[in-house]
């Protein structure tokens, strides 16, 4: 846990402000909504507006969200306390098909008959890399898109599962603060 | 005369190129035949570090940063890392026939099973290398246990030392394979 927190801090400490490219993040959120018939809790989370967004997010969610605002470009969608009943194999296939052209799949894990699913995709963003992490766990789900520097990409490649979890945990942690 | 020579040269180059392409394709093990096991598995892991990602990493990683350099060296020359792993709640969730499409590929041209591979992992660990002459083009590991099945495929120049270094990283599970260097050291002591 301590290790994950350290990785998360390293990740978010050096991520600069970058505009998210394309609309794949929204497409994925919509896909989850359509496939599982659920609805996400939306926060306009592009950190372009810095503390203003953080303060708004904090007011909405009751936390400070400081680290996230300092982290730069982050998109986050949270699905809370909802039913994720459906054929996970079909969901995975649709997801891969939808993202295949612009994103590269890195790691995909499924456990407990689809109750726990994690998908990590990468996309070239000039001298940086966009990372899309989709997590479904029990009655909750998270979609996070962040931009990583080369150093943090190295961490992600070394430990895709741990770093992917760190990205989601950090976003969720701040969301809950 | 010159035109005829050029035509022959182009034809020869095409043959050589297609032979190389075929060889590169052969090194990549197709694992889709195992996908149906996901429905029975307690946990499934799929890792796809393809050539696009390797090239991206090689381009982005700096030689000055220690972390970046380590990963850069590790993946140098590699064209892909693919892992499919299943963990089952109970025994007997997969049978030998499920593995046959994988084994059939490993019986193909260039693939050789390494004997005397020592692994600390429980179950059966088979390591295969694909040779093109004296060069190694790829590696495959098949780990089978009563409740576990893992296939690892590394495309590109790789050996047991590199595999041992890659274990636990880049999505490759810890297979407990003893690298020849480590073995040599133990023997010397």
Write the layout of secondary structure elements.
The complex is a heterodimer of chains A (177) and B (189).
Chain A: H1 2-13, H2 24-36, E1 41-42, H3 51-61, H4 66-71, E2 74-79, H5 88-99, E3 104-111, E4 116-125, E5 128-137, E6 140-148, H6 150-158, H7 160-176
Antiparallel strand pairs in A: 1-2, 2-6, 3-4, 4-5, 5-6
Chain B: H1 2-27, E1 43-49, H2 51-60, H3 66-75, E2 80-87, H4 96-106, E3 111-114, E4 124-132, E5 135-145, E6 148-155, H5 160-166, H6 180-188
Antiparallel strand pairs in B: 1-2, 2-6, 3-4, 4-5, 5-6
Task: Report on this structure.
The complex is a heterodimer of chains A (177) and B (189). Chain A is globular, with a radius of gyration of 15 Å. In chain A, 45% of the residues lie in helices and 25% in strands. In chain A, a hairpin with a 4-residue loop joins strand 3 (104-111) and strand 4. Chain A has 177 residues and is α+β, with helices and mostly antiparallel strands. Chain A has one domain. The longest helix of chain B has 26 residues, at 2-27. The mean pLDDT of chain B is 83. Chain B has helices spanning 2-27, 51-60, 66-75, 96-106, 160-166, 180-188, and strands at residues 43-49, 80-87, 111-114, 124-132, 135-145, 148-155. Chain B has a six-stranded antiparallel beta sheet with strand order 1-2-6-5-4-3. Chain B is α+β, with helices and mostly antiparallel strands and 189 residues long. Chain B is globular, with a radius of gyration of 19 Å. Chain B has one domain (2-188). At the A-B interface, strand 3 and helix 6 of A face strand 1, helix 2 and helix 3 of B.
How would you briefly describe this protein structure?
The complex is a heterodimer of chains A (177) and B (189). By secondary structure, chain A is an alpha+beta fold.
Helix/strand-derived category of chain B reads alpha+beta
How many discrete structural domains of chain A? 1
Instruction: Tell me the overall shape of chain A.
Output: globular
Compute the number of helices of chain A.
7
* Number of structurally distinct domains of chain B: 1
Rounded average pLDDT of chain B: 83
Percent of residues in β-strands of chain B = 15-25%
Tell me the number of strands of chain A.
Answer: 6
Which band does the percent of strand residues of chain A land in?
25-35%
């Amino acid at each position: 846990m301590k290790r994950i927190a350290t990785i998360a801090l390293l990740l978010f400490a050096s991520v600069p402000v970058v505009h998210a490219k394309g609309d794949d993040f929204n497409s994925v959120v919509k896909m989850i909504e359509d496939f599982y018939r659920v609805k996400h809790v939306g926060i306009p989370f592009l950190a372009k507006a810095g503390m203003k967004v953080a303060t708004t997010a904090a007011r909405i969610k009751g936390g400070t969200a400081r680290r996230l605002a300092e982290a730069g470009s982050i998109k986050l969608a949270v699905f809370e306390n909802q039913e994720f009943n459906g054929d996970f194999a079909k969901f995975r296939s649709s997801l891969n098909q939808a993202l295949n052209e612009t994103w590269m799949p890195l790691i995909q894990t499924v456990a407990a008959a689809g109750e726990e699913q994690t998908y990590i995709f990468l996309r070239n963003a000039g001298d940086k890399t966009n990372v899309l992490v989709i997590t479904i766990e029990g009655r909750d789900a998270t979609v996070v898109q962040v931009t990583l520097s080369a150093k943090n990409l190295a961490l992600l490649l070394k430990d895709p599962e741990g770093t992917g979890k760190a990205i989601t945990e950090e976003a969720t942690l701040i969301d809950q603060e | 005369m010159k035109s005829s020579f050029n035509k022959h040269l182009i034809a020869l180059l095409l043959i050589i190129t297609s032979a190389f392409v075929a060889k590169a394709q052969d090194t990549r093990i197709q694992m889709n035949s195992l996908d149906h096991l996901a429905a029975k598995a307690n946990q499934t892991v799929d890792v796809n570090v393809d050539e696009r990602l390797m090239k991206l990493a090689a381009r982005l990683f700096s030689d000055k940063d220690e972390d970046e350099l380590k990963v850069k060296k590790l993946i140098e020359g590699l064209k892909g890392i693919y892992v499919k792993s299943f963990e089952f709640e109970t025994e007997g969730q997969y049978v030998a026939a499920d593995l046959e499409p994988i084994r059939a590929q490993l019986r193909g041209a260039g693939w050789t099973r390494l004997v005397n591979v020592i692994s600390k992992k429980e179950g059966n660990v088979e390591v295969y290398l694909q040779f093109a002459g004296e060069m190694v083009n790829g590696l495959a590991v098949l780990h089978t246990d009563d409740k576990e099945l893992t296939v690892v495929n590394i495309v590109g120049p790789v050996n047991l030392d590199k595999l041992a270094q890659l274990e636990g990283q880049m999505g490759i599970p810890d297979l407990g394979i003893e690298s020849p260097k480590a073995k040599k050291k133990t023997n010397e002591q």
